[in-house]
Design goal:
37% helix, 23% strand, 302 residues, 9 strands, Rossmann fold, GMP Synthetase, Chain A, domain 3, alpha/beta, 3-stranded mixed β-sheet
């Protein structure tokens, strides 16, 4: 019996649906999904099985024009994920078409795409008519030699099985890279931190989610089978701390409850989650914070 295994990097603009597609393919939530852009910061690896093939999906940060050190480190992580993959899948939102961001990605693909296998997935197809989809597919394929084009809805599942089967058939022969029951290549401490950051992002507004980070400071397995998890939310300003806490602590209580419930569902057991909010004005310039996020601090240099 011949097995296959390899890495598939999902690239695209922020909010193109990469995290949603990763979770859909894996069959479980391994990457945070919000309506806000640029919520995926590090390369998240989700592991899926299709027949005799093990597909390791690399959900990369959205590709955009970076302004800050964190932005630059995120974009570098995305392109690094694409360069290291066996197959690259470019996600393009059907209703947005060939935006300036997609244009710049196509230009960069011309460089890294030489000798690299790249497929196109036009996502959110339920938002446009079929003639628009056909025109967009023709335009994109005229600009880059994609191996295959897939019309999908990552949210609703349309076309995702066809994409998964094609990827499974195209990966190189070889032994599986992870145990059969492993669905993510991330330490549980980081997955837990990402779950809390998702709840913060969903509850808070405007720029604040981009000015904070979450770290799992302590994870204590208890004799009764429960886990005590201590996390720190780092914010850049005193005023941000008050927003995270909310009036009489209402916000932090709601965030903690939502994160704890999702963690319990993910782990299949009771969790005691304790959150602290700390002000670190320069956390965006601290190498240790980037390491916790799975990013390379040096990649943020101009």
């Amino acid at each position: 019996m011949t097995t296959r295994a390899g890495f598939v990097a999902l690239i695209g603009e922020p909010n193109a649906g990469k995290s949603t597609l990763t979770n859909r393919m894996v069959g479980a939530k391994v990457s945070i999904v919000t309506h806000k852009v640029q919520t995926t910061r590090a390369r998240i690896r989700g592991v899926a099985i299709e027949g005799e093939a093990q597909i390791v999906f690399v959900d990369t940060p959205g590709l955009f024009s970076p302004r800050r050190r964190l932005d630059r480190a995120m974009v570098a992580a995305a392109w690094s994920g694409a360069a290291d993959a066996d197959i690259v899948v470019l996600l393009v939102e059907a209703h947005r078409g060939v935006s300036d961001g997609v244009e710049s990605i196509l230009e960069r693909l011309q460089d890294i795409g030489k000798g690299r296998r790249v497929a196109l997935a036009i996502n959110k197809i339920d938002r446009v008519k079929s003639d628009v989809l056909l025109g967009l597919s023709q335009e994109l394929n005229a600009r880059f030699a994609f191996e295959e084009t897939f019309m999908i809805s990552a949210e609703k599942g349309f076309g995702c099985d066809d994409l998964k089967k094609w990827l499974a058939a195209e990966l190189p022969d070889g032994p599986w890279l992870y145990p059969e029951d492993q669905i993510a290549d991330l330490p549980m401490r980081m997955i837990a931190a990402e779950m809390t950051r998702e709840k913060l992002t969903l509850r808070l507004h405007q720029e604040l989610p981009y000015q904070l980070t979450v770290e799992t400071e302590n994870w204590d397995e208890r004799k009764d089978g429960t886990a005590r998890i201590d996390q720190v939310i780092y914010v850049a300003r005193d005023g941000h701390k008050g927003i995270v806490l909310g009036h009489k602590g209402e916000s932090i209580k709601a965030i903690s409850k939502a994160a704890r419930e999702e963690l319990e569902e993910f782990l299949g057991r009771r969790v005691h989650l304790f959150l602290q909010v700390k002000v670190r004005e320069k956390w965006l310039e601290e190498a240790a914070r980037y390491s916790e996020m799975g990013l390379n601090f040096r990649d943020g240099n101009t």
